[in-house]
């Protein structure tokens, strides 16, 4: 099954609730992710600290994190998440793509996407990691 088909499968089967945590200091961006990923259980955090608290509480299936945040950077958030769960699925979305891509991939991020991102490619990335069994 292609990545886009996996995304559509989950999109059309909302009874398969997948938890996604979005961590971005721009709350309007968090709301945008909720709209894009509407059929999933999407929880958002508008700070790195809040994101880590929610990660510990919810243990989501996938985390989408921004790099540039005022309290705790996305790099530090990802490091802490990987300490808690080395198998965590983290997708990094950043305006500083070239600066952080290799660092975040070495750290364990599954994908690093530049802002603004292509919506189709973003959905494919999400779908790729949601259906681990396929």
Automatic annotation (TrEMBL):
Example GO BP: phosphorelay signal transduction system
Pfam families to which the protein is assigned, alphabetical: Response_reg
UniProt cross-references to InterPro entries, sorted A to Z: Bact_response_regulator, CheY-like_superfamily, Sig_transdc_resp-reg_receiver
Alphabetized UniProt keyword annotations: Phosphoprotein
Family annotation (SUPFAM superfamilies): CheY-like
SMART domains hit by this protein: REC
Gene3D superfamilies the record matches: 3.40.50.2300
Residues with 4-aspartylphosphate modification: 66
Domain Response regulatory, residue spans: 19-130
PROSITE patterns in the cross-refs: RESPONSE_REGULATORY
Highest taxon of source: Archaea
Protein name: Response regulator
Annotated organism of origin: Archaeoglobus fulgidus (strain ATCC 49558 / DSM 4304 / JCM 9628 / NBRC 100126 / VC-16)
Lineage summary: Archaea, Methanobacteriati, Methanobacteriota, Archaeoglobi, Archaeoglobales
């Amino acid at each position: 099954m292609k990545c886009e088909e996996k995304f559509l499968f989950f999109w059309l089967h909302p009874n398969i609730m997948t938890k996604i945590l979005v961590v971005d200091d721009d709350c309007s961006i968090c709301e945008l992710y909720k709209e894009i990923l509407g059929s999933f259980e999407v929880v958002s955090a508008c700070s790195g600290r809040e994101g880590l608290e929610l990660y510990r509480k919810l243990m989501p299936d996938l985390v989408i994190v921004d790099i540039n945040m005022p309290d705790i950077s996305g790099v530090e958030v990802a490091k802490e998440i990987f300490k808690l769960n080395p198998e965590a699925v983290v997708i990094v979305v950043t305006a500083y793509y070239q600066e952080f891509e290799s660092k975040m991939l070495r750290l364990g991020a599954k994908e690093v996407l530049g802002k603004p991102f292509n919506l189709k490619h973003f959905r494919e990335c999400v779908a790729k990691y949601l259906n681990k069994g396929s």
